Amino acid sequence: MVQIFLFLCSLSDPNVCKNVALPNISLPSFEACSAAGQIIAADYLSRHPGWQLVAWRCVRGPAPSEDGKA
What we know:
alpha+beta
């Protein structure tokens, strides 16, 4: 399975950033993740308006932790 991993920064303080794994959303392939990634990220941001999306990626298996390790 493939999970979506977001890198977000606070709109009020761009120096405050965090990695967010979306463990409840798993897709069958990188192609499916690539096709749905922007929509899923936009949905997340609509529910978390204080954050700005910096990057997103598709990760096979468990998403990396906050320190970037699996």
